[in-house]
Design a protein that fits this description.
Blueprint: E1 4-9, H1 13-24, E2 29-35, H2 39-49, E3 53-55, H3 58-64, E4 69-72, H4 79-88, E5 92-96, H5 103-116, E6 120-123, H6 130-140, E7 147-155, H7 167-170, H8 174-190, E8 195-204, E9 217-225, E10 231-239, E11 247-254, E12 257-262, E13 269-273, E14 289-293, H9 297-301, H10 303-316, H11 324-343, E15 347-348
Parallel strand pairs: 1-2, 1-4, 2-3, 4-5, 5-6, 7-10
Antiparallel strand pairs: 7-11, 8-9, 8-15, 9-10, 11-12, 13-14
Bound molecules: nicotinamide-adenine-dinucleotide (NAD).
């Protein structure tokens, strides 16, 4: 079967991870083009990764590159516009998390893909992370009995580029950036047909007050209802205020057991260095003293496995195991989080809102 041709939009952090994944691990795919509005950035990235074509004109890329699928690795507020453009050109689309920045955008993206008959993929790599998948398999085999509680936490000291802190471009703080992972992973763990019943949130800005209107610390309790009518309590803890590098953990509690998994620190070499060294782990600001030295970062987080699955779906015309509708459902929960943070009350789902920025449900947002 022919090779699936990929065009990557964006040349930043996640574009590099996707490139490593495609080039080292994914079979049956070739990245044929990259786009960045700055031609120098596009050229530099293409040279670095040996990509044959680079563009600064998106219409030219869609018209001329010959790509089958467009991989959107752009700031959150651009997901919607570039997704619609790519769909209009008849391309399949991969969208990084979060799906977009509003419910209106999410609905438009899903409708456009449906109407054009292309596949829209929501990139939630935790559904493919090998350690978390091992946990899911043993839970499904009954190792901990009936699951009554799930926890997921992701924390670090804050994103690496300024647009994340501008809520007009990110849509919100650590909830939109990090808790979206947990909300999606809970759905994945609880299986097809589960839905979020309610959301309760406590949000605060404790560390980055001077540079963002967004929350940088969040605790969210969600109730999920499984297809067989069981209610499972899920706890999401996220932060942009925790120094010491990236932390991603899960806990699964059942009537007959429990399992804990740690994606970064539990997968690292423990190093003490007085001199420091090149790179310890994502978001770590120091490499002196005791550090967690990560290895195979992309692979352990599930990026290559996720992208392989998307390419396989395109090759054989099948639907992804974790659909784009889930990206939309996560957005609905994000909206409910901000509503709960404002009212101090539990919010029942379905929840709808016309707010163009989810965070504006929590507080009045001034222009940046
Ligand atoms: N799955 C994950 O865990 C994960 C991790 C990191 C980032 N992401 C997601 O990937 C997306 C990109 O994040 P990132 O960390 O790569 O960001 P980044 O800032 O490192 O890179 C963003 C890229 O977009 C380009 N860009 C910025 N403004 C633009 C504009 N106005 N028009 C066109 N291009 C523009 C930049 O030049 C850069 O190439 C975000 O949606 C983010 O949430 C996901």
């Amino acid at each position: 079967m022919s090779v699936i041709k990929v065009a990557v939009l964006g040349t930043g952090f996640i574009s590099n991870i996707h490139m490593e994944s495609f080039q080292r691990f994914v079979r049956g795919a070739e990245v044929v083009a990259v786009w960045n509005p700055n031609p120098e950035h596009a050229k530099q990235f293409a040279e670095q990764h040996k990509i044959a074509q680079y563009y600064s004109d998106i219409d030219a890329l869609l018209r001329e590159s010959g790509c089958d699928v467009v991989d959107i690795c752009l700031p959150n507020y651009l997901h919607h516009a570039y997704c619609l453009k790519a769909i209009e050109a008849g391309k399949h689309v991969i969208v990084e998390k979060p799906f977009c920045v509003s419910l209106r955008e999410a609905d438009e993206m899903l409708a456009a893909a449906r109407e054009k008959g292309v596949t829209l993929f929501y990139a939630e790599q935790l559904c493919f992370a090998p350690k978390y998948e091992r946990v899911r398999a043993l839970i499904n085999a009954g190792a901990v009995g009936d699951v009554y509680m799930l926890k997921q936490a992701e924390r670090h000291s804050g994103p690496h580029t300024p647009w994340f802190y501008d809520v007009h471009r990110s849509g919100g703080g650590c909830v939109l950036d990090l808790a979206c992972h947990g909300f999606g992973w809970f759905k994945w763990m609880l299986g097809k047909g589960c839905r979020i019943k309610s959301v309760q949130a406590n949000l605060s800005t404790v560390y980055h007050n001077e540079i963002t209107q967004g929350e940088d610390n969040a605790v969210v309790i969600l109730e999920y209802e499984t297809a067989d009518g069981k209610t499972v309590t899920c706890l999401s803890e996220t932060s942009w205020a925790k120094p010491g590098g990236m932390d991603d953990r899960i806990e699964v509690y059942g009537t007959k057991g429990v399992t804990y998994a740690d994606l970064f620190q539990g997968n690292a070499a423990l190093t003490y260095s007085t001199e420091g060294y090149d790179y310890a782990m994502e978001k770590a600001d120091l490499s002196t003293g005791w550090t967690f030295t990560i290895y195979e970062e992309a692979f352990n987080q599930g990026y290559p496995q996720e992208l392989q699955h998307f390419i396989d779906c395109i090759r054989d015309g099948s639907q992804p195991v974790f659909s784009a509708q889930n990206g939309r459902d996560v957005m609905e929960a994000v909206y409910a989080v901000y509503e709960s943070a404002r009212t101090g009350k539990k919010v029942e789902l379905p929840f709808t809102s016309d707010a163009e920025l989810p965070i504006s449900l929590w507080k009045a947002i001034h222009s940046s």
